[in-house]
Amino acid sequence: MKQVFDPLRKSWVRATPEEVVRQTWIQRMVEELHYPKELLAVEKELKALPHLEHEVSLPLRRIDLLSFMKSADGIKPLLLIECKESELTHEAMDQAISYNHYVKAPFVAIVNHSQIRFRSNGAEMSRLPSYHELIEALHG
């Protein structure tokens, strides 16, 4: 069984096609787009997210990637990403948006090996902004 090292979970994980996409994006986000590694969560159940830990009626869902931002209240969700091994469909974006109903990140994206669909305020673009661009967009 082929494995890939996940620097966020600090462990070897099974190299499924979706996991390879996830690890590729983690590397891009940290190295190229300057997302702080310590503010990224990978493969977390909703109930394991710090800002949702006291919610009682959460569905059993796992988010692929979630970037947080620091705030006066601690950390808050910034960007939810759903990773796909195949084509980025309307259904995939709907899935990410449905997860975000609970997470409440201001930005949502779906990604595969070569494509990005990033959504902000209903508008979509085909690139993933840097961490600093997202923070600036929120705080003007």
Structural description of this entry:
The protein has 140 residues and is of the alpha+beta class. Helices cover 27% and strands 34% of the residues. The chain is built from 3 helices and 8 strands; from the N terminus they run ββαβββαβββα. The chain has a 6-stranded mixed sheet. A hairpin with a 2-residue loop joins β4 and β5. The protein is globular. The N and C termini lie far apart (47 Å). The mean pLDDT is 88.
Which secondary structure elements does this structure contain, and how are they paired or packed?
Blueprint: E1 3-6, E2 11-14, H1 17-31, E3 40-45, E4 62-71, E5 74-83, H2 90-103, E6 107-111, E7 116-120, E8 123-125, H3 131-139
Parallel strand pairs: 5-6
Antiparallel strand pairs: 1-2, 3-4, 4-5, 6-7, 7-8
Oligomer: single chain
Provide the helix percentage. Answer: 25-40%
Q: Compute the number of helices.
A: 3
Radius of gyration: 14 Å
Biggest sheet descriptor: 6 strands, mixed
Uncertain spans, ≥5 residues at pLDDT below 50?
none
The H/E string reads EEHEEEHEEEH
Apparent shape: globular
What is shown here, in short?
With 140 residues, this protein is α+β, with helices and mostly antiparallel strands. It has helices spanning 17-31, 90-103, 131-139, and strands at 3-6, 11-14, 40-45, 62-71, 74-83, 107-111, 116-120, 123-125.
